[in-house]
């Protein structure tokens, strides 16, 4: 399995941290929404009991029961609205962390591919120059110098590629 570059690892760490924070906040919101619902329900039941005690006839008790039912429904709606909003925020935060990581990963891969393409192009150019120099060389010394120039050009191309990808390649597994 291929390792992550330093930039990719940092982005992955930021993604993981962002998602963990989003999850933590989401869990807190869910817990608080549930507590708010529980408290509203408790208060509604207290009011309902008192209203039923002071109700003088069947109709008044029915109204108290209906008000209690409505209060419980409103508490549920409030809880559901809070949790729905928390889920939207959580999802957006989670998606943003994932998108940031993927963008970093793509840029890292593109930079490595660009460096490899530049290296390949430099190799081709060095081959062309080497072949031309070898054709024009009239003696052994000139051919030897063409050989040395070719080796130097290949080495320089390799150094340029390595320098371009050095930071991106840090942390990669072989």
Overall mean pLDDT score? 83
Count of domain modules: 1
Tally of individual helices: 3
Rg (C-alpha, Å): 35 Å
Distance N to C terminus: 9 Å
Relative helix content: over 70%
Total strand segments: 0
Could you please describe the fold and organization of this structure?
The protein is mostly helical. Helix content is 91%, strand content 0%. It has three helices and no strands. The protein is rod-shaped.
Summarize the structure in short.
The protein is an all-alpha fold.
Topology:
Layout: H1 6-54, H2 58-136, H3 140-169
Helix pairs in contact: 1-2, 2-3
Question: Tags for this entry?
Answer:
174 residues; mainly alpha; 3 helices; 91% helix
